[in-house]
Structure formats: C-alpha cells, structure tokens
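User: Hey, quick favor. My workstation is busy. Could you predict this chain's structure for me?
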Amino acid sequence: MTQARILALMGSGETAPRLVKTHREILTKFTDPKVTLIATPYRFQENVSELSDKIIEFFRVSLLSEVIPADLPEKKDGPYDDVVPGLNDDLQYNRLLREADVIFSGPGSPSYALHRWESSLTKDLLKEKLQNGGALVFSSAAALTLGAYSIPVYEIYKVGQVPRWLTGLNVLEAIGLNTAIIPHYNNAEGGTHDTRFCYLGERRLTFLESQLPQDVSIIGIDEHTCFLIDLNESLVKVSGLGNVTVRHRGKSHIIKTGTTLEFEALLEAISELKAEGNEAGNSKGAAFHGESYPLKDVQSPDTKGSSVTDLQEKLGHLEKEFTRLVDEKDAEQLFPVLSEALNLLLDACITMDPLSDGDIKSGLEKLKSRYLLLVGDLIDHAKQGFIDKKALYSPLVEALIQMRNEARDANRYQEADRLRDVLVTVGIQIQDKADSTGWDFKD
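Assistant: No problem, here it is.
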C-alpha cells in the first residue's frame, strides 16, 4: 500500500468542530497513525502547556488519536534566547518528526518559529514527509512558515514595524509551489478598519506584494477553512466555512469551499495569474507612506554556505547508502559509511569558522543533527539485530499454520482457533486467502 502524501493548510479554527471531518479524512489515510504535535510556534507563551493540552485533548476526544508533542529543547540563556544546542538535545525532536505519519502545528508566532527552526532539520524533515509519505497539517502561524516568504504578523500589526517579508521554510517548493501562505485571509476583527489578509489589510498587502519576486504568488486561506492537497491523487480540496484565494500582483482567483480540482488545474491557475499580474507591472503598491522600503530579512542566495551545501549533499548520499545497507542487512559495511559521515562532519568543523558566519553555524548544526539520526538508526538496528526475523521464525510458524489449517479442514475448529491464538499472542498476524495462508509480524 502506497504511503499517503498530504498537505493540509488551515486558515484558523484547527480544533473547531467545522474541521473535524477534514482531520478524520486525513487520519483515515493511515493505519494506526502516529501523530506528532510541533509546539514550537507558541513555545514562548506562558500558557504553552495549556495550549498543548488543548490540542492533545482535541485529537484524543474528537479524533480518537493519541498525540506526542515535540519541540526543540529549551534554550539555556533565558526563557527562549538563542544558544547552540548540546550534542543530543534535538535528537528526539528529529526522530519524532521523521517517524510521524501526521505532523500537526498551529497557532503562535511565525517569526519566532522560523528563528527556532533555522539551525534545525525541521525544513528538511517536513520536505521529506511530503516527498516520501506522511501528512503535514499546519494552521495559522505554522502555515505562514511553509512558503518561500513569511510575514512577521505581530511585529507589523502590534508593534508597528515596517511591513517586510521574512525568509520562509519554503517546504512547498518540494511540491512545485513558489508561494507565500497567508491564513486568516478574510479576518474581520478590525470592524472599522481593514484586518483582512492576516491583519495586514489591503494597503499593506499591496505594498508587500510589490516587494515579492515576480515568480512568487500568494495563497490566502480564510478562517475555519482547509486547503488540502492529496499528492498521491493529485487533487486539491477546499473545505470549511470560507474559501481559498490564489493571488498575484493584486489579481485573484477564488476556489470556493466544497471544490475539488486537479492539482494541475491549480498550477495552471497560478500560471495564468502570474502572466496577467506581471504584464500589469508593479504600478500597484509601488509606494507606502511615500517611502520605499527594501525587502528586509530575506536572505539572498550567495556562495558563503556553498561548502556546507556540498557537505550536506555528500551526507545525503551516505544516508541513502546507509538505508540500502540496512535493507540488505549488510552490517559489515555499515560502520565504514558511518565513519565516513563522521569524517565529513569533523572536516567541516576544522575547515570552517562558525563563530564568524551564522550561515555556516546553521549548516553545521544541520549536519550534526543528520549524523546523530544515523547513529540513532544504527543503535535501533543493533538492538533488534540484523537477522531476518521472518526467515528465523518461518519453519516454526509454517508448521503451526499447517497444523491449524489441517484442524480447520477436519472441522476441529476449537483446536484450529487455539493454534491461531498462540500465533497471535506471540505477534504473528495470519492472512487467510482463498487458496493459501500467509503471515507476517504485527506492527
């Protein structure tokens, strides 16, 4: 069975009754789904435990699913000041994300979350989930972080800072979307003033649009609304109370709630809007309060981190080789691969100066985290052993299955049921077919 690949972005109301059906639809794509909650976006709030408990209770009561919370470790120099994590601090967080079927994240501050995630493997692990199998269910602040660019909502709306873009995680790049995500798109809390578009209003959004690169569009998601992309089925679905808006340079295409369309149709709609918007030029929103502001906080590509990028690519090849050797149960060749990965990391530490360059420091942190994941995998496999369990158990299990089938054919059903129960008790799942009986270990 192919592992489901789903991206679900919610404008708000992620634990409201209206979106329960959507959550259930996602969870039913997986057998006994493992759900992980990323608490990072609201980790700075004093009621962090209360917020986590609310989400965990929602999944337990409304969706009958247990949730494991995950967050990068607390910082050492204050409640949430930046500091280089210790050797094993982020290992559990990385493994929870990698092993989850469904990753959920919601309210909080997008700028705080991006700051916490910039030196972590979060971006890589979320991309892998969309590429290799799993579901990302991100709402509100968390949804803001997944695009190529993100808005520092609190800083603009509450503090009054100059409207600007932050560099987003750009996880959506993995599925061919070059966009900025804006939740709370139809917000009306302002009453007498415009708070649509995640509290920006039309005036500030128009200005920010003019600062985006020509090939970047906006996807706006109304409150209590879900924008779901089923990558295996190549389908896009909109559910909930509101709509989804694809926007480029002031021109919009609205996808109404209840709509299901081909993913290719979404890409075509974006392309058409880009053609229209770019043809119109940048006359809209070229000025803001009579001043011109640069695209602050957006990191343009440069060559400073190229050596780190090269090392990441080499480590990626080693990870694939490691996975292949584990699948083939070739324990003898695993150590050389792990040793080479360690040498890569040591070379990076020797030849680069993380104290003088933040990008290099961030890259080294990611390399270290990926190496520790390999070590954790090796420990797991060492505990289990590299012997093929099915081959080891097969003679005994096959004999018991044959005895059970013979008893069943002779109408000795009580004896057949006892033999089946013995197998189930020791973790063997019997698979009766029309002309044969198969078996496997229970998950």
